[in-house]
Design brief:
- The chain is mainly beta.
- It has one domain: Nucleic acid-binding proteins (OB fold (Dihydrolipoamide Acetyltransferase, E2P)).
- The protein has 1 helix and 7 strands, in the order ββββαβββ.
- Strands 1-3-4-6-5 form a 5-stranded mixed β-barrel.
- Strand 2 and strand 3 form a beta hairpin.
- It is globular, with a radius of gyration of 20 Å.
Amino acid sequence: MNLNKAMIIGNLTRDPEVRTTPSGQNVASFSVATSLIWTDNAGQQQKKTEFHNIVAWRKLADICGQYLKKGSKVYVEGRLQTTDWIGNDGVKKYRTEIVAENMIMLDRAGGNENFGSGPATPRRQEEELPTINADEEEEIRVENIPF
């Protein structure tokens, strides 16, 4: 069994750049920063930031280009992919990126919307979800759960 899955939550470091391939497919590329914060042995707070290259294809690329902006907080789920090429200086170069399969905007008004090819379906803002009040004595039934 093999598994190639990446899941990150972070902020865009630049606006997505959307291009069209010669075959007519749209592709968006952008970068997401994630930070790890910890306290060292001396009691000082430390912070390390990682930058992740993201690539989205087709309809997900269009959505990323339309709705995401520098600073947006997003959840990105996808797979890792490494490409290599020979640079102008003759040296072999490598780039590891996350090929996005799913993206959720976390800081917008409709921030819980889910886009991509994953199993979840988008939730429209105009849909009213049933509310379940814990104070009521009524039994909670499976059909009342909104997901």
